[in-house]
Amino acid sequence: MKLTVLGSCGGYPEPGRACSGYLLESGSARVWIDAGTGTLDALLRLSSLESLDAILISHLHPDHWTDLPIALHRLAVTSKGRPERPVPVYGPAGWPDQTGVRQQWFSGDGEVYTPHEVDSGLLVRSGGLEISFAAVEHGMETWAMRVTDGDRTLAYSADTTPCDAVIEIARDADLFLCEATLAEHQETAISMNAAQAALVATKANVRTLFLTHLLPGIDPVRSC
Is this prediction's pTM over 0.90? Predict the structure, then answer.
């Protein structure tokens, strides 16, 4: 299993660093997790959109999805009609309308994606990967994710304050990709700082913690 960080900026991009987005690969499987501003450019340097097995959107704050509509537009234009395999897109309830994708403003003769809404019982099997979801606490519907290929396990916190759900979905993961939006000693009801992320990782007994979603201007070395 290979994780490539396409963007790790929280809230909005800064020069040279896109918002949240990750490419997860295992064997022939390729999954795009979150499509924040600037991540499409980074993704296309590594993978074609046609080769994706799924796109996963954790929640509907814009820094996690704004590149999705333009990605589907590009897919529609470059595939010259209905692709052989429309890409499944998973997200919170109502995501096609709330992101504007339902407007079908992109051109093409057929569907380039199939929409799915996440719930707590959903288990996605895609390209040899198994993906499960847990609702976490971020002030809006937000889904943390756990992905396994049968050998290794990745957990992704999405954006959340420390809570039981994120601890459980990260339990014994080989890699825990966890947001650390806040500056040192700052706390809110919707996000974490680095110390809180480390505490969650310790409680979950993860092997490796990887911090992401750092606000622009925060020194990633000092924040750790």
Answer: yes
